[in-house]
Amino acid sequence: MIPSFRKPIVVMTAALAITFLASVNTTFAEVNFAQEVTLPDQPAAPAIMIDPTIALTQSFGSIDLGSGSSIDAGEMALVSLEARRVQLAKSPVGARRVARELVAATYKWSAKQMACLDTLWAGESHWNFKAHNYSSGATGIAQALPGNKMDVIATDWRTNPVTQLRWGIRYVKIRYGTPCKALAQSRWSGYY
Fold this sequence. Notes:
Number of domains: 2
């Protein structure tokens, strides 16, 4: 079992390896981290040290990924996609785009409903994932109160705007059915 303080390091190391391997050769169906993987025609680069016990090195066209279990190429692509989504959602414009993608994949709300969601969260947080209301304690893009309600999605809600978006969309759907009904509640009472 990996100690909890090392889990983020292991995940980030795996994500770096996944991103690198996905960009180099998409024919890998599975990578076993206990083996050395040889990549064709790659220039030598210095080692990337995340943790003294975990190293991702590249020299003379091969990568030593250390020891551990194997990860499927599909899982590697999902980690890369999610990392890009998180980075994109850190800006208000990107957060709106990611919210549209998440809604399209789950609830398929109309353009009118998306406009209501945009208005609602622009008023709540300006789509800023770092937003915090110091008087009420509400946190994040959707202004969850208390913020730890978002733990039902993931515990990284303080730093991950995609977690906040997933929670907010789910909350609106469960509590109000649609963003326009949530916006009407917010206009009527000052909160939703």
